[in-house]
Amino acid sequence: MIGRYEVEVYNKRVHYQLVVKRNITVIQGDSATGKTELIRMISDYENNGSSSGVTEICEKPCVVLGNTFWRERLNALSQCIIFVDEGAASI
């Protein structure tokens, strides 16, 4: 997917705002800076919607590619922003 997309994800404790500008964007940082928490929150929202306590604002759907059936899921995804944690089998 090509373009510039603003992603905002937050709950009562933390608030993330980022801009995805390229086909592949790497979010990096020191240990314990919130990268995995961002992935967890996006996954919670994806699975449970607003009842998860997470708010997600983005023009495109945000999805987390996990360890289970990741190849099949990746093939089925289109027009969305895909997040992958560094420990995922798909990497």
Secondary-structure map with pairings?
Elements: E1 5-10, E2 15-20, H1 35-48, E3 55-57, E4 62-64, H2 70-76, E5 81-83
Parallel strand pairs: 4-5
Antiparallel strand pairs: 1-2, 1-3
Account of the 3D structure:
The protein has 91 residues and is an alpha+beta fold. The chain contains two helices and five strands, in the order E-E-H-E-E-H-E. A three-stranded antiparallel sheet has the order 2-1-3, with helices on one face. A two-stranded parallel sheet has the order 4-5. The radius of gyration is 13 Å and the shape is globular.
Index terms:
single chain; 91 residues; alpha+beta; 3-stranded antiparallel beta sheet; two-stranded parallel ribbon; 23% strand; globular
Q: What percentage of amino acids are in beta strands?
A: 15-25%
The termini sit apart by 19 Å
Question: Strand order, biggest sheet?
Answer: 2-1-3
Percentage of residues in helical conformation? 10-25%
Q: How many beta-strand elements?
A: 5
Sketch the topology as an H/E string, one letter per element.
EEHEEHE
Shape: globular
Helical/strand content category? alpha+beta
Biggest sheet statistics: 3 strands, antiparallel
Number of helices: 2
Unreliable spans are: none
Mean pLDDT: 91
Rg, alpha carbons: 13 Å
Summarize the structure.
The protein is of the alpha+beta class and 91 residues long. 23% of the residues lie in helices and 23% in strands. The protein has a 3-stranded antiparallel beta sheet with strand order 2-1-3, with helices on one face. A two-stranded parallel ribbon has the order 4-5.
